[in-house]
Amino acid sequence: MNRTGSNHAALLPVYVEELQAEAVRRGLKLDGVVLSEGPGSYTGLRIGASLAKGLCYGADIPLIAVPTLAVIADAAITAIHGTEDSNNQNFMICPMIDARRMEVYCAVYDGRLNEVQPLKPVVVDEQSFAQLLKEHVIYFCGNGAEKCKGVLTHPNARWIDGIVPTGAQAGKMYYAPESYGKNSWARVIEGKDIAYYEPNYLKEFVAAPSHVKGLK
Question: 123: which strand partners?
Answer without folding.
Answer: 103
